[in-house]
Design brief:
Elements lengths: L2 E5 L2 E4 L4 E8 L7 E7 L6 E7 L4 E3 L8 E6 L4 E6 L8 E8 L17 E2 L3 E6 L1
Length: 128
């Protein structure tokens, strides 16, 4: 049984930093992609960054580019999200997600509907 467990959320002041972790168990994700999504109250699910294994690429939306960094520690099957220069608009529940499938078109990895596995979410609150 595949499980993704996030940790590291919390309350931080604007300009501060947090690091989220996502520990995967049940399988090793060596194909497809793993990434982070977030959802703020009353808003739709938003892609944060994603790592696409099959293409060796990482995608960041403009909203987090230059501030957030996604990384992976293979030995521990763990995904990280380093978040710097946090803004109040970054406040959301952050979810780790994984899909083992290789898509022909990379943009399929940018939408949550493509992902099979999800963590329970961790709250990030940025105060102004």
């Amino acid at each position: 049984q595949v499980q993704l467990v996030e940790s590291g959320g919390g309350l931080v002041q604007a300009g501060g930093s947090l690091r989220l972790s996502c520990a995967a168990s049940g399988r090793t994700f060596s194909s497809g992609a793993m990434g982070w999504f977030r959802q703020a109250p009353g808003k739709s699910l938003e892609l944060v960054p994603v790592m696409v294994w099959s293409r060796g690429s990482t995608y960041y939306p403009d909203s987090v580019k230059g501030r957030f960094t996604i990384s992976r520690y293979n030995a521990k099957n763990t995904l990280y999200l380093q978040m710097n220069s946090l803004k109040p608009e970054d406040t959301a529940v952050y979810y780790c997600a994984a899909v083992p499938k290789t898509f022909d078109f990379v943009h399929y990895y940018y939408t949550g509907a493509s992902y099979n596995y999800w963590g329970q979410g961790t709250q990030v609150t940025v105060s102004s």
